[in-house]
Amino acid sequence: MEENPDTNTNGDPPQDRTPIKQEKEENDWKKGSRLLSGLVGSNVLLFSSALLTCVFTEDIDIFEKDFLIFLTIMMAICILWMLFQMYFTWKNKNAVLYKDCQAGPIWMRVGIILFGIGALVMTSLKIAYTAEFEDCVTPTKITQPVIQALFILVQTCFLWVSCKHCVQIYLNATRCFLMVLLAVNLTIWILTVTEESRHHTNELQAYLYRNNSETNISDLSEDPDERENVNICGCKYTCAVNKTVFVYLYPFNIEYNLFAAAMIYIMWKNVGRQIDENASFHHGLGPGVRQHIPLLGLFTGLAVLITGLVMFIMYEVGRENLHKQWLSLSTFYFFHVTSLAVMCLANVVGIVIFKLDKRNMDNQKNPSRTLDMVLLLLATVGQYAISYYSIIAMVSTVPFGLLCGLTLTYSVLMIIQHSLQNVFIIEGLHRLPPSNLLNAHQGTSHLRTVDHHDAVRRRSMPERESRLSLTNHPRNERISRRETLTQHIKSHLKKRKTMKDVYLFLFLCNLIFWIMPAFGARIRFDTGLEVNFYGFSLWAIITNICLPFGIFYRMHAAASLLELYSMS
Q1: 3-state helix, strand, coil in the chain (%, to 5)
Q2: Of 222, 249, 280, which residue is a domain's last?
Q3: Structural domain boundaries enclosing 112
Q4: 544, part of any domain
Q5: What mean pLDDT do residues 153-172 have?
Q6: Residue 338 to residues 391, 505, 509: CA-CA distances in angstroms?
Q7: Does the pLDDT at position 2 exceed 50?
Q8: How far apart are CA 321 and CA 211, in angstroms?
Q9: Is the CB of residue 168 less than 8 Å from the CB of residue 96?
Q10: 96 — phi, psi (to 5°)?
Q11: Measured at the alpha carbon of residue 463, what is the angle toward residues 461 and 468, in degrees to the nearest 5?
Q12: What are the Basic and acidic residues biased-composition ranges (predicted)?
């Protein structure tokens, strides 16, 4: 009789197959659960985007009313779920058995609080602005900002408390609600970006019209805000001030929703994940921040930051004066070109030090790092696109003047700097911290020492004496080895200090390159060169699509550089 290979002689079940089958079933269920929640979130996002498109393309009030009602309902559902989730995880200790130490670092949680404060101030001013027109606006325009303010408060508390949680029960429901929350944040982000782009486009239309440029302005349309019933209701001084102020708070609301969406995505990936907390290291403000203050990187970065702020103010003032416009624009371009060249040099220095300072690479599964890489690369595409459009326009422009040369150099350096910085950041995120290497080396040395003592203890006395005699080096040779080790340690510390200077310098540079476009700098519009080549409508579409990705790239790159600085 042929023996069944699935059973042993004792009749016991095959224990070696059970864990494999169980793990496979869990992985299959995880994929199915993620697919279901992904479908729910994508449908919510696509439906809200369709409504939002109707709001900004059709002059029909019913679309705006429907969109605001839908967004208010979705935010209310998310508020109720977040409150329930925080209460449920607090009452049930078995809900969260594992935590991801690499998710939600302290700098990201502090950042979402700071951006949340700005978003909350903007929403409060919007409430005050709409309250001025209580008699001639729909109730949804007043209700929606109130619910959004409550949404910001609850979500900030929820992310601070739960961003590291790896939920182990009710996995399907948790994943679905997290994806709905992610879709709501992305919808608010799209809405805010669209409103900001429309505002800046209308300002640029008025600017080009006032300056009587050579641009073809036959397709310029009047401000859509003037078509609203603001004049009918009689906007007072208070509402005008509120509108002017909350327009400048758009960048805070944009970054808040992006930060929240990134943290929610990591939480979604961590649902059902079992992590060995002892095997992971902490990505936070660690010893690298406290041990050494990189004065060179700090002072040079602050010099670029302060100079950039001065140049930005001069640029904004010069735009209103025709006699100073060319000078302020040329100076602003010179600052960009010089800063980008220095940033490229800093990135090259960092990459060279990476090649000289050999370390092991971390290839373990890490959702936070994977998301950082994907966001960096996707956001770079927007800046690449607008730079290539600008290069084609400058090469085709006749005559080729100073502004054409500056714009061409600026676009080329922008592509080079983004490419070098992506290589630098992504490689840095995969390098193991020095503390891990030191601990691993110490652990290996300790094991070798124990094995050596055991072997020596087993030897006879003559063998041990001969061993000691062979290992008894002259005094000068031992001193030489000690000096070599000291030089190696000094060289390693010097590389670490240089890397911290590079990290801090690039962090401050990316910060100023986020501030300038986020708060209204549109230098590729003010020259009129690209507008003359592509036309106002086409260039406005290109800029409004690509520029938000470029702004997001700078903030995300600054956050990644801060993380690298904290780990160095």
Answers
A1: 80, 0, 20
A2: 280
A3: 27-280
A4: yes
A5: 87
A6: 18, 14, 12
A7: no
A8: 9
A9: yes
A10: -125, 100
A11: 95
A12: 14-29
